[in-house]
Amino acid sequence: MLSTGTLRAHLLAARLAGTVATSREQSLRSYRLFAARDPRALIGLDPEWTWNQRDLIALMADKCGVSADPGHTCGLDVIDPDRTLAALDAFAERLGAAAERRVPVLLGTGHPHRLLGFYAALADALSAAGCAVLTPANGRCVDITTRFGLRTHNLSYVRGVALVRKAGTERPGCATGAHTHSPLPVRTALAAAAEGGGPLPELVVGDHGWVCGAGQLGFEAIGLADTDDPALFVGEAEGSVSVAVPLDDGVRSDYYRPLTRYVLNRACLSQ
Mind telling me which InterPro entries this protein's record contains (predicted)? Predict the structure, then answer.
């Protein structure tokens, strides 16, 4: 069993919390884009309230522990590990409730190179607990706007976790996928589930557009978010996202394994 103190030390040592690799400049740019309602920063969310950059800095200081000083414009961001731990507890509570009720779940990531293993372990545990891990729209094409223009991707599932791959890069047994913030994959998956008459998820687990896109459509959604992803925390503040866990979402994939053990233990799920 991984204790809270041990996990807290790991968060700091792995730079999942504490001083993280995300720069203040990068986060402030995201806040400016979000305040301007740029889709690149909204990632599927349609905020009910008006958020200016100062509001977002205050929110992120409260939710993540970043500097609340608008005059602090450079350097590396800081995430309070105690806020991460509290959010992980809430995240685990939602997973445990889903497992207890054996509801259908959907998991997806825009960070497959880093977070696939974390979500796959959750999918395995939820499936073992009797939850249906949904895989709607498998193989469906999704056109996503990137910095290089509109690119066709294919929705795919690896160990029960949705991700997208650039069209033409699929290889049997290959678990790689593309990094994306787009909400289009989750919208595609949810639309296909509805059209097919099959079960709809009662919990969506993921990051980026998977959480905001699902939450905006009224599905319960929980996930992980870095300090330059204000949309998830705005969604949490407004009630469309149930839990947003503040942490660096771009560290080595094996650094998330202690989080997996901690969350599954707290959720009373076996790995």
Answer: Phosphatase_SCO2771
